[in-house]
Amino acid sequence: MALGADPSAYPLRFDAGRVCLDLLATRHPHEHLDGVGALCAWIAGAGLVPAGTPLGHADASWPAAFRELRGDVGQLVRGLLGGEETAYGDALGRVNQAARPAPPVPVAVPGEDGLLRRELAAEPGCAALLAVVARDAVDLLTDPVARASLRRCAGDACPLVYLDTSRGRRRRWCSSEVCGNRERVARHRRRAALARA
Q1: Is the peptide bond before 110 cis (omega within 30 degrees of 0)?
Q2: Alpha helices (H) in 34-169, listed in sequence order
Q3: pLDDT, tens digit, for every residue of 82-141?
Q4: Which element (helix H / strand E) includes 162?
Q5: Domain spans of the chain, in order of start
């Protein structure tokens, strides 16, 4: 991110197709998990907890734990995409370990309008929330169909990875609105420059 750039100009993204891949997107184009508030916004946005779940008990250790899991998942995904199955190293053991705790338990409770809504049976801890993301990574990396749908964004300087669920499996960019639009504008400018020459 350029000095003086507004971080809100780069909102959190939840379009990679899997929660573990959405976690990888939190480091581009700048660090999104730089504090407890930012992490809590990501946890809620990713759907790890029902809307309105209080996370006031989150402390400064949480963002570091999520960044560590992000690094491990990123190493596994890069190894898989690069054909480096033996390059998993300690990351695989750490992701497997993070997946072990019980995830938050949802329960149905009547809302003010009488309709059932989802809440968590207890206050979610950091380890339980990490387990949700780690289990998603384990499911993704061990499912042959999902693995075959993993793609790197074709955008210039975009490191994001996404799950290509498009018809024909021909999606090229992490986001058609972001990287796809940049590519279309760049192509148009190249054609215009050639026409002027």
Answers
A1: no
A2: 36-45, 61-81, 89-98, 126-142, 144-148
A3: 876 556 779 999 999 999 999 999 999 999 999 999 999 999 999 999 999 999 999 999
A4: strand 161-163
A5: 11-152
Superfamily of domain 11-152: Jann2411-like domain (1.10.3300.10)
pTM for this entry: 0.84
Q: Are strands 161-163 and 106-110 parallel, antiparallel or unpaired?
A: unpaired
Tokens of 35: 């504090």
C-alpha closest to that of 157 among 28, 53, 49: 28
* Rg value, the chain, Cα: 19
CA 157 to chain centre: 18
With a CB cutoff of 8 Å and minimum separation 6, the contacts of 64 are none
CA distance 165 to 148: 10
